[in-house]
Amino acid sequence: MEIRPFGIAEIRIALTQGWALANATRGASSAYAGIFTLIGAVILGILLAQGFTPFVIAAAGAFMLVGPAILAGFFGIARAHESGQKAGVGETVAGFAAAANAIWVIALVTALLFMIFLTDAAILYSYMIGGAPVWLTEIVPATPGVMNFLTWGAISGGVIAFLIFCISAFSVPLLCERRASLVNAVVASVRVVFGNFIPAMLWALLLSVLVIGSILLLPLLPLILPWLAYASRALYRQVLPL
Q1: pTM
Q2: Which end is more exposed in the chain, N or C (fewer Cβ atoms within 10 Å of the end residue's Cβ)?
């Protein structure tokens, strides 16, 4: 399997192509992303209503840990569009059906790491902030306890997110298109990340900032999520050409 190097120029091209594909499939893509927007709205609403405002940022960051598992749905929409078919929400199901079964192993691993992070974050929250409610109006200026929670939560989440990014950033697209076995896909993903470490980390940082920001500003998520999903697909096809 040929692995091509990538840098800022390739990331810029991927973002441009991703935006074009997101616009071309706006209805189906936004509807699919809307599912996760509704789920996020419920979760964030519960946290805010219970006075767990600092945990909202941790919850937004946690989405990055499970995000790779939903890419197959966007691949289904993209495949339908490129074949000249009308892309609908039903194509998301077709995307998962067309993917290799090993993709569910990746999904299971990300879900496990997601639960580990949430458990760690809950322990940190209890230890550093306690049970007293922290309302949205009290979050600025942040207390030392809140700042400590956000700092250590970011460190904990960052380590787990790095591991997930390494094993899934390029393996999930490979599995979506049945181009490799589970082991070969993961090995290829790790090779791409470490072979292009600086641009890969810039890409990971860009994904994190945009996704977490759009979750905190939730109405943006149906616009941002398809864009980044298709940009990830475009970058993967540049680095691991068909």
Answers
A1: 0.90
A2: C
